[in-house]
């Protein structure tokens, strides 16, 4: 297999394992709801707070990617994501669980910009749409796996075991990425300094504003499904929780197909 595709599959797996943690909070929230007697608002906040974390870190992560490269930043971020997820096992009340999820979400901020940097490093412009679609497919893959595995793990050994498995997957992916990933070109220190000094400040080009707004709308709908879809199926439709988890997975697997097909189309249209 071409080296760049090996690096792409590696980046996709790190993205999938990271999303297994963050989207896995949706199925876990349905379980925490029963365990802690939570309201629908409190459950929605559990999913929201882990998504706030990346907002606190993504700009800083992008700045560090430009200076230090993606290998150890993605690897370390995935490791810390898993380690902080394990702290949720220690939460004795709802407020502590919220705090631990916020800290966990901060480390998810390395997966998205880091994976995009891998694409920019390894793929020419004419192939980046497809490559980005494949890497982004890690998001619904991770969410779909979480929907299938976490409810089963909770039935098997309780919610703490489900949380442990989510963290373990992220930790193992971080170790794997740090071990196997290589950059295609090694910059000299002088080249890195010159590139960074050329554009020291972050500015969002005006042409990206419509993309940002569209993304906010689409992700908002996506988060509604992640936050409340499984609970709606289980509580309103009286579907068994394991079956509800499978329905959650089917929705996300459809998204995986869409991400790759639409990205392939964008390279040509």
Rg is 19 Å
Helices and strands, in order, run as HHHHHHHHHHHH
What is the subunit organization of this protein? Answer: single chain
Major sheet size, sense and barrel closure = none
SS elements, strand count? 0
Catalogue the unreliable spans.
187-197
**What is the CATH C-level name?**
Mainly Alpha
The number of distinct structural domains comes to 1
Q: What is the architecture at the second tier of CATH?
A: Up-down Bundle
- Cα distance, first to last residue? 27 Å
Q: Indicate the structural class.
A: mainly alpha
The averaged pLDDT comes out at 83
Q: What form results from the Cα inertia axes?
A: globular
CATH homologous superfamily heading = MFS general substrate transporter like domains
Relative strand content: under 5%
Question: Which bin fits the share of residues in helices?
Answer: over 70%
**According to CATH, what is the topology?**
Growth Hormone, Chain: A
Domain Major facilitator superfamily (MFS) profile: 1-269
Pfam families: MFS_1 (PF07690)
Keywords: Membrane, Transmembrane, Transmembrane helix, Transport
Protein name: Major facilitator superfamily (MFS) profile domain-containing protein
């Amino acid at each position: 297999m071409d080296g760049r595709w090996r690096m792409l599959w590696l980046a996709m797996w790190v993205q999938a394992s990271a999303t297994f943690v963050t989207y896995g909070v949706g199925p876990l929230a349905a379980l925490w709801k029963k365990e802690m007697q939570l309201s629908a608002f409190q459950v929605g906040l559990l999913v929201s707070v882990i998504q706030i974390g990346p907002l606190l870190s993504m700009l800083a992560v992008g700045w560090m990617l430009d200076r230090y490269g993606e290998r150890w930043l993605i690897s370390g971020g995935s490791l810390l994501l898993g380690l902080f997820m394990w702290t949720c096992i220690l939460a004795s009340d709802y407020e502590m669980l919220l705090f631990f999820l916020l800290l966990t979400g901060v480390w998810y901020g390395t997966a998205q910009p880091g994976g995009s940097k891998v694409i920019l490093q390894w793929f020419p412009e004419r192939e980046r749409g497809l490559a980005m679609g494949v890497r982004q497919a890690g998001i619904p893959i991770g969410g779909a796996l979480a929907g299938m595995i976490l409810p089963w793990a909770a039935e098997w050994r309780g919610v703490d075991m489900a949380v442990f498995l989510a963290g373990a997957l992220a930790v193992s992916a971080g170790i794997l990425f740090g071990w196997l990933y290589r950059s295609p070109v090694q910059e000299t220190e002088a080249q890195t300094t010159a590139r960074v000094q050329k554009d020291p400040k972050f500015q969002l080009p005006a042409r990206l504003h419509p993309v940002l707004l569209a993304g906010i709308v689409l992700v908002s709908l996506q988060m509604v499904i992640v936050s409340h879809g499984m609970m709606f199926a289980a509580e309103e439709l009286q579907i068994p929780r394991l079956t509800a988890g499978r329905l959650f997975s089917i929705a996300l697997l459809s998204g995986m197909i869409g991400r790759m097909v639409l990205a392939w189309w964008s390279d040509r249209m």
